[in-house]
Each structure stands twice: as C-alpha cells, then as structure tokens.
Design a protein that fits this description.
This protein is an alpha/beta fold. The chain is built from 8 helices and 5 strands, in the order βαβααβααβααβα. Strands 2-3-1-4-5 form a 5-stranded parallel sheet, with helices on both faces. Helix 3 packs parallel to helix 5. The radius of gyration is 16 Å and the shape is globular. The relative contact order is 0.20. The structure holds thymidine-5'-diphosphate (TYD). The site of thymidine-5'-diphosphate has 15 residues, from helix 1 and helix 4.
C-alpha cells in the first residue's frame, strides 16, 4: 500500500524544473505534508554514481541502448530504495525528471526505438508510475538561453545537442502528455518563476486535492 503521492516534473533544458520543484516541496510542507524532494538520474548513492557515468565525458560515450540501461538501472534503485519507501510511510515525493525524460531524450531526441524504452521500463519498474506529471513547456530558444544564463555552464553533455534535438525533445514531452492526459499536465514555463509556480500549485490542488 502506497499512501503517499508521486509527482514528477519534466521538460527540456532551461524550463526551470529544479527551482519549481524546490518551491513546490516548500509549499506542500506548509500543508503539513511529509515531502521528499529528489531528482533523476540520481537520488541514491548508487544512482548518483551512475549519474556521473552518464553525464560526464564525451557526447558519444555510450550507445543509445546502453544509455537507457544505465538510466533505467539508476531509476530502479531510486524507486525501490527511496520513492516507494517514502510513499509507503505516507510521504509525497517530488521528483525532478523521471521516466518521461528517458522517452523524450533517448526515444524522441536520440531516436532510439521507443519500444525498447517502454520494454525496459516495464521490465525494471513494472506498473509503477507517477500520480501526476507536470510538463514544463518552453520554446527551445528561450529554454536554451535561460539554461546558459542560469548555469553559466556549457559542459553538460546533454545541453550540447543541436537545435533539432531540442525540438524533438519538446515534441516528445508534448506527445507523451497528450497520450496520457490523466497523468500529465502541460504548464507554460515562459513566465516568471512566481507565475509558473502558481500554475503548478493550481494544477496539483485540482488533481490531487490539496487544500
Ligand atoms: P541535469 O544537470 O540534472 O539537468 P536538468 O537540470 O536539465 O534536469 O542533467 C540531467 C540530464 O540528463 C538532462 O540533460 C536530461 C538527461 N536525461 C536523459 O537524457 N534521460 C533520462 O532518463 C533522464 C532522467 C535525464
């Protein structure tokens, strides 16, 4: 029995997920909800080690299938050791990226066979899925501009893909959201932090009955 709720935030580069996740966790805590804020890839020592393997180094370091296997291995560790135990004790989990990122980045972005992405998810994670996925949507140019300004970095290998990649990524997230409207909600992420946060809170209040 999982009494808690599982909320994921998804979106392309520079959509502001990390800031928004933190603010959502703070807000839910004011409602006296026990909140676990986490992220992928990562969230456990093992998954953080896999994260380092994935995000550092050459862009062509792993082939597509190997990459999905690594993301999926990290995800299983995270789900089994952090997410499900937290939900079992009644906590709400707010997670910055989850499986939709694998479908969008590896499936749509890198054009890996989407059937492989789905099969590996089902094999490793089974029928477990988020209660609510918030897709933060922003046009590619604005998102990339923001990502560069905010982080001042250019080293993350997933940020160094061409524009076509980022366009496919955005399409991917929107397609996933359209296919699963009960689980997903698309939120316009172009506004100021406060405006986007207000939209996210409204969506959570409506969908998960937070008062
Ligand atoms: P991170 O620095 O956490 O970026 P962001 O702030 O955009 O979340 O790096 C995570 C990177 O990994 C990001 O570029 C998206 C990518 N990623 C995948 O390609 N597939 C996945 O399944 C996940 C979870 C992330």
């Amino acid at each position: 029995m999982l009494a808690g709720r599982f909320i994921t935030l998804e979106g392309g580069e520079g959509c502001g997920k990390s800031t928004q996740s933190r603010l959502l966790a703070e807000w839910l805590r004011t409602k006296h909800i026990d909140v676990v804020q986490t992220r992928e890839p990562g969230g456990t020592p093992g998954a953080e080690a896999i994260r380092a393997l994935l995000l550092q180094g050459e862009a062509q370091k792993w082939d597509g299938v190997t990459e999905v296997l690594l993301f999926t291995a990290a995800r299983r560790d995270h789900v089994e050791k952090v997410i499900k135990p937290a939900m079992a004790r009644g906590a709400w989990v707010v997670c910055d990226r989850f499986a939709d990122s694998t479908m969008a980045y590896q499936g749509y972005g890198h054009r890996l066979d989407r059937h492989i992405v789905t099969t590996l998810y089902t094999t490793a994670i089974g029928g477990f899925a988020p209660d609510l996925t918030l897709v933060l949507d922003i046009d590619v140019a604005t998102g990339l501009d923001r990502a560069r300004r905010v982080t001042g970095r250019d080293q993350d290998r997933f940020e160094n893909m061409d524009m076509g990649f980022h366009e496919r990524l955005r399409e991917g997230f929107l397609t996933i959201a359209k296919a699963e409207p009960e689980r997903c909600a698309v939120v316009d992420a172009r506004g100021a932090v406060d405006e986007v946060q207000a939209q996210l809170r409204k969506t959570i209040s409506e969908r998960l009955q937070v008062r």
